[in-house]
Design a protein that fits this description.
The complex is a heterodimer of chains A (138) and B (92). In chain A, 24% of the residues lie in helices and 43% in strands. With 138 residues, chain A is of the alpha/beta class. Chain A has one domain: Cytidine Deaminase, domain 2, CATH 3.40.140.10. The radius of gyration of chain A is 14 Å and the shape is globular. The relative contact order of chain A is 0.21. Chain B has 92 residues and is of the alpha+beta class. Chain B has a single domain, classed as Ubiquitin-like (UB roll) (Roll). In chain B, 16% of the residues lie in helices and 26% in strands. The chains are: A alpha/beta (138), B alpha+beta (92). At the A-B interface, strand 4, helix 2, strand 5 and helix 3 of A face strand 5 and strand 6 of B. Strand 4 of chain A pairs antiparallel with strand 6 of chain B.
Amino acid sequence: MIRVHPEPWTTMVAHAEATFPNECCGAMLGTADGDDKTVTFALPLENAYTGGQEDRYEIRPEDLLRVEREARQRGLDVIGIFHSHPDCDAYFSKTDLENSCPWYSFIVLSIQKGKFHHANSWLPNAEQTKAEQEPLEY
Amino acid sequence: MAKILIPTPLRQYAEKNNSVDVSGATVGEALASLTTQFPDLRKNLFNDEGKLRSFVNVYVNDEDIRYLQKDATAVADGDTISIVPSIAGGLC
């Protein structure tokens, strides 16, 4: 189960709608007690993909290094990554799976015609061959 | 000694430590020291051929070792080593 508090959720949705029709991305910080995760802070990041960003995103490792440092300073943990699917459902695509990192929760926000529509959270397996849906509360 | 910062999801394999002191004069030796202390980390960081998994990046202080001497990058006392994943995706 992953719970996203209202303030970070508002940040995530606003970032996803603002970057439409491109994909957005960002990091989620909070606390984890085993599989029970709570997101208390969201950090929008720049989509660093150099091609068309309407169907791709990429996070620079140096940005994630900065995120990890910010989490430590705030006394929080990096819980997961969020990104958007413009005019598309919130599934975990083959591209998402192959380019993910099986350490984190991945929340996908479906943005339809520029507005938030729905979201799902996914947990890639260690081999990055499939992703299991994780209960999401926001 | 150098210090390796452990990303949150991997701390469960490192007795919940958020950082681990390691010995070694290079990044390769420092990572070997880490996985000797915590063998369960090995499969999360390395593939079956013993190479870093494709999405795993290693930084010494602020420098990505891919642009230095990779595993042979020198590590000095007081250096901080960070393990940072590559993440990308897309809807297709």
